Amino acid sequence: MSADAKAALIPTTRSDHFIFIVVTLLYWSTLYVYVPILPPFMKSSGYADVLIGIVLGSYGFTQMLVRFPLGLASDKLHKRKPFLMLGMVSGALSCVLFTIPGSWLWPLAGRMMSGVCASAWVAFTVLYAAYYASSEATKAMSNISFMTVSGQLIGMTLSGWLAGAYSWNAAFIAGIGLGVAGLLLSFAVKEPREGVERPPISLQHLREVVRTPSLIQVSTLSILAHCVLFITMFGFTPLKATSLGASSSQLTLIVIAFMVPHAIASLLTGRILAPRYGSRNVIAIGFALSALCTIAIAYSPSLGWLALTQALNGFAQGMHLPLLLGLAIQPFESSKRATAMGFYQAVYSIGMFAGPFLAGFINEAFGRDYGFWLGGLFALAALALTLIWRRSHAQQSA
């Protein structure tokens, strides 16, 4: 192994790592501190499901437009820290917009601003990877993936408690505070003046990358997976919970029921399940289980049953989402991986937009339970495609 592979691009201390970890947790907490209460908040304000779907979908729509250009700008400047700060500012501003009463356009603007915040995530991953030697890239990504789920869980857990103890606006105000705290602390994040270089996102490579069949297949599956995720836990599942009589504190328990198995599955999938059973087999099982559990949400007679569907669905989605991420960049040499990842992240944002957007119209026309049927059909479509492409992959490998 070369000396370069053993040395980190940015020499760091424990305190440097600690500061980055706290900033990352604040970032995801700011972004997710209102996610479970947003649909009930809008419903209590008198908005129809179709408008709720448009607002929820705008998060993904913004990322479709912003993620790739932000990645290009970050690579051109070789700077990641300003984009960390942009994420914090836009996250706090999104929460400010949600507190403005009077029109559904304010929540729409807030959710679109949160899409800008989410688009800054690539800068976090690139900077954190530079804290490790190239030979430890897997360890770095595993750590930051755990930070992601932890920050989301902190934010979503606070969400229901704040809404129950105080008011809907308490979660948004907390989000402002978390964003401002993250912004101030991000000044202490270590990045050298010359910045951090990596093989950049390249428009020249883009044409070649997007013609790669495996990337097209994985991106299609990820669109469908994110349709399901943003119809369910990050979409209309909280409204199902409140329709079953869930209080704000019980809403928190529904969130935990989903997120904890999701985190556990994310850790187990790459380390144990995929090496033993094969990535495509695990992805297929994940989609099959997710389809059943998403449709089962519609028939949940009580909060206990709903919590069970969320626990199983959280685990199922934790089985396929991390593997799709790895498969997206697997066939590319290092000089093209940034471009492949930029394309992949921009494309799966289509699912974040299309899932809740379409479900909102379905809910309004036929009833909310049919939105979960739509999510289940997306998962079944992904299962069918996975099985078809698994067979063709096996034939090509033979």
UniProtKB/TrEMBL annotation:
Q: How does it sit in the membrane?
A: Multi-pass membrane protein
Report the InterPro entries cross-referenced here: MFS, MFS_dom, MFS_Efflux_Transporters, MFS_trans_sf
Q: Where is the Major facilitator superfamily (MFS) profile domain?
A: 16-394
Does the entry feature the keyword Membrane, yes or no?
A: yes
Q: Where are the transmembrane segments?
A: 18-38, 50-70, 82-106, 112-132, 144-164, 170-189, 215-239, 251-270, 282-299, 305-329, 341-358, 370-389
Keyword match Nucleotide-binding: no
Q: Where in the cell is it found?
A: Cell membrane
- Pfam families from the xrefs? MFS_1
Keywords from the named record: Cell membrane, Membrane, Transmembrane, Transmembrane helix, Transport
List, alphabetically, the PROSITE patterns matched. MFS
Q: Which PANTHER family match?
A: CHLORAMPHENICOL EFFLUX PUMP RV0191 (PTHR43124:SF3), PURINE EFFLUX PUMP PBUE (PTHR43124)
How is this protein named in the record? Answer: MFS transporter
Q: Which organism is it from?
A: Paenibacillus lignilyticus
